[in-house]
Amino acid sequence: MAQENVNVVARIRPLSNETNDETCIKIDPVSSVITLTTNEKQFHMDKIFEQNAPQEEIFEYIQPIIAAVINGIHGTIFAYGQTGSGKTHTMIGSDENHGIIPRSIEMIFIALNEQSKNRKDNFKFKISCTVLQIYCEKTYDLLNGNEKIEIHSRDILKNAKEVEVKSSNECMKILKCGLEKRKVSGTLMNETSSRSHAILTLTLKTEYFKENKKHERISRLNMVDLAGSENRNHTNNNKTQNFEGANINKSLSTLGQVIREIINPFPNQVISYRSSKLTMILRDSLGGNSKTTVIVNIHSNSKYATETKSTLNFAVNVKNVKNTAILQEFITSKETLTLKAEVQRLGGEIDKL
Ligand code: ADP
Ligand code: MG
Q: Residues that bind ATP, according to the entry (predicted)?
């Protein structure tokens, strides 16, 4: 049960060339250091993917988290960055060029189907998903008509509609259907920019028998496409968008604050997870029981130097957060299983009376 730092990956998107603007960063891929050309400040990442890095390469890098989730450990992957920096491209991608989420879903189904075919220990699995969005500090259930729901700090998904999925195709269909309902509104930065945080959670339940004992594992994989982290003043937004921006920034600023509290706590510090919906949901993922990778997406045109600096500062902070991922396995002996079955049977007898 070792402590492990959050893994931080930078992905640099291609420069937008409409203004012949230049980049504001230098990259050393060997030492994984990004240097801001404005002040020569250096930022150490765990890994950097440059502008031509294909989706496969990013997926290959995060695969160990998916493998861990398949084996009963909680995992989280989230994308952080300004609007237009490539978060949705990285997490979801397009039909022709899948991002992390569809690739992960496919990998999970392939692995678990293969295990149930080949293992001789009565291996079974069940996968379900929830899709939520946080918009203006309210949580909505994208699998239930975008209805507003309350989330509870103890059992985050208690009120969310959880849908069992039997194949990766079915899971992707449900996810896409949910994401269509996601709140979008154009800004100058990106016509179809997402103004909400979207959170897909897959719950994997597996079971097998060993020496007359039932082993059950329940792990969760959170995959999060955050709203843009940009400074609102840049985008010339109208009033509604400013209101959205303030609330989006509340969730993101709480995220930054929580991370600072974790890495640099006061004596008896109570971490402010409960100050925003996003941090309530990501509680286990930051300073808790999870393997976590953060992808910071960077749009390195020099006109975005301020946003890039703020994204890189976020990256080096979150890199210092430590998690302890614990195998989520519950073992029941044969005797207990027999007793449970007997209790159930007697319950049925009583109902008949
Ligand atoms: P965000 O979700 O952060 O607002 P998007 O993922 O929508 O940003 O990306 C904005 C635009 O840039 C999209 O048209 C996307 O296809 C393109 N883009 C982003 N990252 C890359 C990349 N690494 N390679 C090619 N195109 C990219
Ligand atoms: Mg997006």
A: 81-88
Please identify, by atom number, the ligand 1 atom nearest to the C-alpha of residue 81: 3
- Distance in Å, CA 12 to ligand 1 centroid: 10
The residue nearest atom 17 of ligand 1, judged by CA position, is 86
Which atom of ligand 1 lies at the shortest distance from residue 49's CA? 23
pLDDT above 90 coverage of the chain, percent: 70
The response to whether 99 counts as a known ligand-binding position is no
In Å, what is the CA distance from 155 to each residue of 45, 70, 296? 33, 22, 28
ipTM confidence score:
0.99
Q: Which ligand is nearest to the CA of 89?
A: 1
What values do phi and psi take at 200, rounded to 5? Answer: -100, 125
Rounded to the nearest angstrom, the distance between the alpha carbon of 27 and the centre of ligand 2 is 24
| The dihedral formed by the CA atoms of 112, 118, 122 and 127, expressed in degrees to the nearest 10 | 10
Q: Rounded to an integer, what distance in angstroms lies between the CA atom of residue 212 and that of residue 127? A: 25
Enter the pTM of the model.
0.90
Contacting residues for 192 by C-beta, under 8 A, at least 6 apart: 184, 186
- The pLDDT tens digits of the residues spanning 225-239 come to 998 888 655 444 555
Distance 258 CA to ligand 2 centre (A): 23
Closest listed residue to residue 293, CA positions, set 59, 54, 56 = 59
Q: Could you give the CA distance from residue 135 to residue 142 in angstroms, rounded to a whole number? A: 12
Distance CA 70, CA 56 (A): 19
Q: Which residues of the chain have pLDDT under 70?
A: 1, 18-19, 183-194, 231-249
